[in-house]
Automatic annotation (TrEMBL):
Key word Nucleotide-binding present: no
Residues the UniProt record annotates as site (Contributes to redox potential value): G30, P31
Entry protein name: Thioredoxin
GO biological process: cell redox homeostasis
TM stretches of this protein: none
Gene: trxA
Similarity section: Belongs to the thioredoxin family.
Coiled coil segments of this chain: none
Disulfide bonds: C29-C32
PROSITE patterns assigned: THIOREDOXIN_1, THIOREDOXIN_2
Gene Ontology CC terms: cytosol
Keyword field contains Cell cycle: no
UniProt-annotated site: Deprotonates C-terminal active site Cys, residues: D23
Upper classification of the organism: Bacteria, Bacillati, Bacillota, Bacilli, Bacillales
This protein's UniProt keywords: Disulfide bond, Electron transport, Redox-active center, Transport
């Protein structure tokens, strides 16, 4: 199942409650393409404990700028609307799960 996209208009509602991992990405980004299937696997394994969403930085400059995203992929873990962890660059699945599990 594909991970749902968020945009400048829906972002705040999506991150407002619970634990949400947001993937800031772009279609032209090689490492973004590498991490996408890893996130889909994680979503399939622990998607009941956290939401995973994608935000295309090219189409959503407001949120991208608001959170100071300078490099992609950037993954931000939110709890009830607040950033609790940020990862920049490709991360192996084991690393991501380890970091996520510390917060769920």
């Amino acid at each position: 199942m594909a991970i749902a996209e968020v945009n400048d208009n829906t972002f705040q509602d999506e991150i407002a409650n619970g634990t949400v991992l947001v993937d800031f990405w772009a279609p032209w980004c090689g490492p973004c393409k590498m991490i996408a299937p890893v996130l889909e696997e994680i979503d399939g394994e622990i998607g009941d404990m956290l939401k995973i969403r994608k935000l295309n930085v090219d189409h959503n400059p407001n949120v991208t700028q608001q959170y100071g995203v300078m490099s992609i992929p950037t993954l931000m873990l939110f709890r009830d609307g607040q950033v609790i962890e940020t990862f920049v660059g490709y991360q192996p699945k084991a690393n991501l799960l380890n970091l996520i599990n510390q917060h769920i």
